[in-house]
Write a structure and sequence with these properties.
Distance between the termini: 36 Å
Strand order of the largest sheet: 3-2-1-4-5-6
Radius of gyration: 17 Å
Strand content: 5-15%
CATH topology: Rossmann fold
Number of strands: 6
CATH architecture: 3-Layer(aba) Sandwich
Largest sheet: 6 strands, parallel
CATH class: Alpha Beta
CATH superfamily: NAD(P)-binding Rossmann-like Domain
Structural class: alpha/beta
Length: about 250
């Protein structure tokens, strides 16, 4: 492959945007996919202005037709897509007894079904190349459990199990599948929107972590860059905790 091409979902800000920037600096052409096309275009524009290759794409990850159209556009511009980072997701802090069916279904639709759809749509390119990298962004809440997040934790636990099973199926094809479960990452849309609903203040969260700080989007981007590199062909089915020591395995 003369040019590696990556699709990053939920890429208009935060972790997704940081991953796009890091990939571009590593010479990977990037599809910046998000439901918010305007912000995705800003991320792509910044990458191009710095000499990288990127294109903004719009889709809901839970809509197969939209995802397929976006991947076709990325493929037409840059070539076969052999790297995917499933980062798009939603969250929520709700007491278990107050979670209704609609909230549960929406969480599963975006966080779990979206990961399934996006991976399935890009898989033919990886199979044809006999090389591929799938990185799923899960959550440390799926490992430890978190009060008021039963639907979120369950959806991200599904992502971890999905990762393990897909690694077994796709390993013989030259495709690795791993996941990164972040802890609290400062500056993300998700964190800023929910920090006031957390069961403890941000400063208390910092003091609970061995590293005594929140994560930064670049922390996740650095791990993702390693997982999609040529150096990780023998790494698959793994949960790579980038969480400041919140979960120690």
């Amino acid at each position: 492959m003369s040019q590696k091409v990556a699709l990053v979902t939920g890429a208009a800000a935060g972790i997704g945007a940081a991953i796009c920037g890091r990939f571009a600096r590593d010479g990977i052409a990037v599809g910046v996919l998000d439901i918010n096309l305007e912000d995705a275009a800003k991320v792509a524009g910044e990458i191009v202005a710095q000499g990288g290759k990127a294109i903004a794409l719009q889709a809901s990850v839970a809509d197969r037709a939209q995802v397929t159209a976006a991947v076709n556009k990325l493929r037409a511009d840059f070539g076969p897509v052999t790297i995917v980072v499933n980062n798009a997701g939603i969250t929520g802090w709700v007491p278990f007894e107050e979670i209704d069916d609609a909230a549960w279904d929406r969480m599963m639709e975006i966080n779990l079904k979206g990961t399934f759809i996006v991976t399935q749509v890009v898989l033919p390119d990886m199979k044809a190349a006999k090389w591929g990298r799938v990185v799923n962004i899960s959550s440390s809440s799926a490992q430890s459990g978190t009060p008021l997040m039963a639907h979120y934790s369950a959806s991200k636990g599904g992502v971890i199990s999905f990762t393990r099973t897909l690694a077994l199926e796709l390993g013989p094809l030259g495709i690795t599948v791993n996941n990164i479960p972040p802890a609290s990452i400062a500056g993300t849309v998700m964190f800023e929107a929910t920090k006031d609903k957390m069961p403890m203040p941000v400063e208390a969260i910092k003091q609970m972590l061995p590293v005594r700080r929140l994560g930064e989007p670049e922390d996740i981007a650095n791990a993702a860059a390693w997982l999609v590199s040529e150096d990780t062909g023998y790494v698959t089915g793994q949960t790579i905790g980038v969480n400041g020591g919140r979960v120690i395995s």
